[in-house]
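re: the backbone from monday

yeah here it is again, tokenized this time
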């Protein structure tokens, strides 16, 4: 086949408003028809763009003028263009549709689009010969059409192929055409850009629309709105198309202006509201006439309330139990989790902890909760306790100082045997500096027994004990005194213990 294949076009008598000039043999007058001959040959030796100002869907009204490569204003009829591959061509042009391919038609239409919309066609050029071939020519000629392909020249092995695509996009209304041609092959591409209304969206400076509309993150159960304005920026009378919204979380407020006729510069508006019923990404769609656009939004759980902390501690001292109270500024609207930590600045003491265990706890928050109470104990070591609570993004903190104090005595017990006296004392030393001990013994009459107070320095022994203990400042003291004579004459004893913060004395303890 060759490029000389032509179509016959029957020429009707000139009608009012149609150009009736004589036929031309100039290749630049492609697509023209003769006013004298009843038949004319129409070849595709040159290409043209047919542009319609107005609504191309009406033939009688709204068409103001047409241009055809320098021709004066007048009506023009595009009947047909046919380009067939050459008889001995070694390349085939194929139309690729998904995973299938077929021979590309001589006339391929992109259909009807609106301004700034784009359409893409995918093609494949194959070397059908049994020998390698070089592709030197591959181009598209026409306003609004763009070709994407590898750089030329391209060497193709037998049955080898190369993929290419043509994208159409235009801003002006009208009918467009272009030629896609290569080695011995050419086809005609056509597209139409129809007039449409102008849509804009935004609560501030309005932005161009339509397109994907994202409502962002919205708290579950609450709503976010987008106002969309409509304006007729064309010189034609246009009708607002059918407007609808799909998706359980999206809706149109009030009535939509579908079907309303808009003169040039007239407008309207409608509002879409996004009300997520669940957390996570939510999707819907907006339909404007023959086009649909995605609606997107993210549902978020209500935020947890703001937290403040306070301490319920009767005495800021060692060996005490208290409670950390985490109060909310409002009842919780949703369930969640908070975190409480207890930091201690001082010598290690495992007894300083929350009652739930450890110094870091997670606590549950249920809808309606107004506070959380977390019991704790102060241990037996002097230092600074710092409590921190975090709920959501809110953090609050409070500290309390446990001062150094003289030894604390919990119990004192005296045990007598035939030849010895034993004194047992339990208590704590939050300074861990216990050392000096003093023992005073009394007879049944309450008189001190000679030689009086017996003193000893046990600092080294206590230091060694505390260094290996994980009980904080807790201790158990056992002091044994051998007795010469009758041990029954010793009736009671008092013990004084001293550390770096002072001294403490037991009550008179009987044997």
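seq for it, each position gets an aa:
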């Amino acid at each position: 086949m060759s490029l000389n294949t032509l179509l016959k076009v029957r020429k009707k008598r000139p009608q009012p408003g149609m150009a009736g000039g004589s036929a031309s043999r100039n290749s630049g007058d492609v697509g023209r028809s003769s006013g004298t001959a009843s038949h004319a040959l129409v070849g595709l030796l040159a290409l043209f763009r047919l542009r319609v100002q107005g609504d191309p869907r009406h033939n009688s009204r709204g068409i103001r003028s047409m241009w055809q490569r320098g021709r004066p204003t007048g009506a023009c009829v595009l009947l047909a263009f046919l380009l067939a591959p050459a008889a001995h061509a070694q390349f085939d042009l194929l139309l690729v549709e998904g995973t299938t391919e077929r021979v590309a038609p001589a006339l391929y239409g992109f259909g009807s689009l609106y301004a700034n919309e784009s359409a893409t066609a995918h093609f494949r050029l194959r070397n059908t010969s049994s020998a390698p071939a070089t592709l030197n020519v591959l181009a598209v000629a026409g306003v609004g059409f763009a070709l994407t392909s590898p750089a030329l020249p391209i060497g193709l092995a037998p049955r080898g192929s190369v993929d290419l695509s043509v994208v159409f996009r235009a801003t002006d209304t009208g009918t467009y055409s272009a030629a896609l041609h290569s080695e011995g092959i050419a086809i005609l591409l056509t597209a139409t850009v129809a007039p449409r209304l102008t849509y804009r969206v935004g609560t501030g400076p309005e932005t161009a629309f339509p397109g994907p509309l994202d409502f962002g993150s919205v708290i579950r159960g609450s709503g976010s709105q987008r106002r969309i304005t409509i304006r007729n920026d064309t010189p034609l009378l246009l009708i607002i198309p059918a407007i609808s919204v799909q998706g359980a979380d999206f809706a149109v407020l009030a009535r939509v202006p579908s079907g309303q006729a808009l003169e040039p510069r007239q407008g309207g508006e409608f509002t879409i509201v996004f009300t997520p019923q669940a957390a996570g990404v939510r999707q819907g769609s907006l339909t404007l006439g023959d086009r649909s656009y995605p609606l997107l939004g993210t549902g978020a759980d209500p935020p947890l309330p703001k937290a403040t902390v306070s301490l319920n501690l009767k005495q800021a001292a060692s060996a005490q139990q208290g409670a950390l109270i985490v109060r909310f500024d409002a009842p919780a609207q949703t369930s969640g989790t908070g975190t409480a930590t207890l930091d201690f600045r001082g010598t290690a003491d495992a007894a300083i902890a929350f009652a739930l265990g450890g110094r870091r706890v997670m606590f549950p928050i249920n809808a309606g909760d107004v506070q959380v109470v977390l019991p704790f104990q102060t241990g037996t070591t002097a230092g600074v306790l710092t409590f921190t609570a975090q709920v959501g993004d809110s953090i609050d903190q409070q500290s309390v100082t446990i001062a150094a104090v003289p030894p604390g005595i919990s119990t004192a017990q005296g045990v007598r045997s035939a030849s010895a006296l034993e004194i047992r004392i339990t208590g704590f030393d939050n300074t861990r500096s216990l050392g000096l001990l003093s023992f005073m013994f009394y007879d049944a009459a309450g008189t001190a027994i000679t030689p009086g107070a017996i003193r000893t320095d046990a600092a080294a022994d206590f230091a060694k004990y505390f260094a290996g203990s994980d009980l904080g400042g807790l201790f158990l003291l056992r002091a044994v005194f051998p007795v010469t004579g009758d041990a029954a004459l010793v009736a009671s004893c008092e013990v004084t213990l001293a550390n770096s913060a002072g001294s403490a004395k037991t009550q008179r303890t009987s044997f």
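Helices lie at 459-467. Residues 1-89 have pLDDT under 50 and may be disordered.
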